[in-house]
Amino acid sequence: MKLRLSAKLLQTLGPWRNAPAWHIAFSGGLDSTVLLHLLASLANTETLPPLSAVHVHHGLQAAADAWPNHCQSVCERLGVPLQVMRVHVDPGASLERAARDARYQAFTGITGAGEVLLTGQHRDDQAETLVFRLLRGAGVRGLAAMPVYRALGGGQLVRPLLDVPRAELEDYAHEHQLKWIEDPSNVDLRFSRNYLRHRVFPTLTERWPQVVSSLARTAEHLSEAQGLLNELAQMDLQAAHQPSPFAWLPLPNLALAPLRELSDARQRNALRHWLTPLTRLPDSDHWAGWNSLRDAKHDAQPIWRLADGELHRCNERLWWLPCAWSEFSHASVSWPHPRNPLELPGNGQLKCIGEPPEGPLVVRYRQGGESIEVPGRGRRDLKRLLNESALPGFVRGRLPLLYQGEQLLAVPSLAGLWAMPPGDWQLHWMPQTCDQGLS
């Protein structure tokens, strides 16, 4: 059995044999104990990336305080370094989900470029995940359950035992006389997964002995179907990725017209694909918000609020604004040395091109009623100028205005809102980028 399971593990991990490091998520339970033992044993005969183990301590029960010591002793016997990470679990409607989120946030932080985090989920876990999500009304993406691998941090999360039944892991553990932790919470039927594992699946297995294998196979079929939907979404989004008239604005955006030509189902599929890396997706009932945004009057600027930001529609273009977009200060900022760039708190950078005016300068934000001298046009109302430029409304409140005393001297050129005479100075604004906290 050892050779068969080892060979299966090596075959699954073949694509990542040249990774800089393999980190093993080590809870101390059966699954991760077997995975750790398998890899530590293989490292004696095979050339593998450097191995290390990571134990996440959630602090949710008194019994868990002894688990880091157990994990440390196991790792010392196997010659694998261990890192213990303590996390804070935010209370909420689902303790299971909150603990999982905290755990994977910790995993993300330690997974460097090209590195791999290995977890011990197995075929029974896959079947439970499918039924759990089916009962929650998940779509194809959710019912595809857990993928063998996905992006995590700078590298990949890999589940090399996903095709192995739990019974095979138990046999391996008994054969090698492994000791593991039995989490008391795993028998608490208040948790949905425990209820499925201890009440539902025994009944299903009694009537259909191959139910776990069948459900895992169904998850594979659904994963393949989701792959086809992803390919379709990429095709549909290609037409919507048209250049923005505001290329300097570092926000994800799409042209709306190509999406309008698709059926409702293909619109939702394309948007799910586009929004997945940006926010947690809404459930079916909340997709009515997309219909309202899409069908609003032409001169409207509707907003669809989602878990991690907002989708805006401005001038037949969709713009994604993460929650961090609104996290900046409207307070005035002095600019004593305008020959040097000015960092605006939470709002990017401002700089002068050319020779700026002398005297104390201050950056303020719009209050309404501003006017400015435009070369060749005289004094013009700023609101009207911005309307002419079709600048999206959500940007206007962040637009830095340069004052000398009470006189509005300049508005950022914004890639040519209006022409400036040759040789004159201009004010250039580089808004906050996604790399600076907008993703």
UniProtKB/TrEMBL annotation:
Domain Lysidine-tRNA(Ile) synthetase C-terminal: from-to ranges: 361-429
Question: Which CDD domains does the entry mention?
Answer: TilS_N
One of the GO BP terms on file: tRNA modification
Catalytic reaction equation(s): cytidine(34) in tRNA(Ile2) + L-lysine + ATP = lysidine(34) in tRNA(Ile2) + AMP + diphosphate + H(+)
Subcellular compartments: Cytoplasm
InterPro entries the record matches: Lysidine-tRNA-synth_C, Rossmann-like_a/b/a_fold, TilS/TtcA_N, tRNA_Ile_lys_synt, tRNA_Ile_lys_synt_N, tRNA_Ile_lys_synt_subst-bd
Q: Which GO terms describe its molecular function?
A: ATP binding; tRNA(Ile)-lysidine synthase activity
Q: What's in the keyword line of the UniProt record? A: ATP-binding, Cytoplasm, Ligase, Nucleotide-binding, tRNA processing
Report the GO terms under cellular component: cytoplasm
EC number of this enzyme: 6.3.4.19
- Binding residues annotated for ATP, in chain numbering: S27, G28, G29, L30, D31, S32
SMART domains associated with the record? TilS_C
Q: What is known of its domains?
A: The N-terminal region contains the highly conserved SGGXDS motif, predicted to be a P-loop motif involved in ATP binding.
Q: Which family does it belong to?
A: Belongs to the tRNA(Ile)-lysidine synthase family.
Show the NCBIfam families listed in the entry.
lysidine_TilS_C, lysidine_TilS_N
Q: What is this protein called?
A: tRNA(Ile)-lysidine synthase
Q: What is the gene name?
A: tilS
